[in-house]
Please model this.
Amino acid sequence: MRSATLTPTVSRRTFLLSTAMLGAATACSSPSEPAVSSGSLTQLRMGAPVSLTSAHIYVAKGKGYLREEGLDVELVNLLGTDAQPLAASGQIHGYFGTLSAAFFNGLSRGLDVKLLGPNGGISADGRPQIQVVVRKDGPITAVADLRGKKVALPGGSATSSAWQFDRMLSTASVRVEDIEVVEMAAADAPIALTNGQVDAALAFYPVLAQVLTEGRLVVLPGMDKGGELGMGNMIAVGPGLTVDNRDAGVGLLRALNRAVKDLQGNYFDDPEIVRIVSENTSIPADVIRSCPPPGFAPGLPFNPSVPQQTQTYFRRLGTLSYQTNIPTEQLLDNQIIQAARV
Model:
C-alpha cells in the first residue's frame, strides 16, 4: 500500500457542504479550561465535529433533554484525534468521534478515556453513511478495478471508515494494501475525483448527497458489504465525567438515550428534528432530508466485536504501537452505561 497526500486545485463552489461545515466550525469556540457548575446547571464541553451521525446530541440539546438532566452542554468542533488528549486532561469532558489507530495508541500510552456507546450508523433501511464513488464515464466499474488505483480516503487508512472500506473491498479479494491511499479532507475528495487527481473516493453523507445530485459521480456497485458491524463511531468521555462528576456522565448518556427514542425510522421526515440538526450543523434542511438518517439502536448498545476488529485491522497495517488488543470491557464504563438506561 502506498500513501500520499493531495490537495485539490479547484474551487469548492459546487460542494456546498464544505461551506456549511466551515460555518459551523467558526461558530464553535476553542477548547480552554474545563467548565464548572453555573447556577442550577452543570456546564459541560463536548467535542463534536459536524456530522449527521451526532444527531442524538443535537436532539438532546434542541428538545431540552440535557437541561432536564441539569446539564448545559457546549459543543466544540473537534476531530477525535485532537479531542482525545483534551478529554483525558480534563480540558473538555468528552467527545463524539470514531475509533482510529490514534485512539487506541493513546489508550496504550495511558490516556484516561472511556466509551459510553456508539454514534449513529447504518440507517434503518440499510443505507450506509459512506459509499465509494467513481466518475460516471470513467474506467472504474467494478470493485476489482480499484486494485493499484488512487483512492481518496478522508483521514487516511488508519480510521474506522477505512476499516469499513477494507471490508467493502474484500468482496473482490482486494484489500486497502492493494490500493494507493490518498489522504484528504472529506469535502475535497469528490473534487479531486472529478478532476482526475484520484480514481475513486470514499464519500460521506451529507457531501455524498450533493455529489450524486450533480450527476458527474456515481456509487461504485458491489460494495454494500461493510456496514453490518457498524461504523466505529463512538461517544468518549474523560475523567471529568467518569471520576469527578459521574452523575453528570449518567445524565449526559440518559439524555442521549431519550433522544435516540426520537431517532427511529425515517426521522428526517420530522420537520422539528430536521430543523434542530440544521441549526446545529449549518447543513441546509433540504440536504438533510435527502440523506439516509443514521441508525441509532435504542439503548445505544456497543458492538463488542468492533473495537477488536478495528484493532486487528490497524495492527495489520502496522499502525498500532502495542502488541495485544485492548479488551472491549476495558474500553467501556459499564456502570455509567447501566445507570443511564431509560
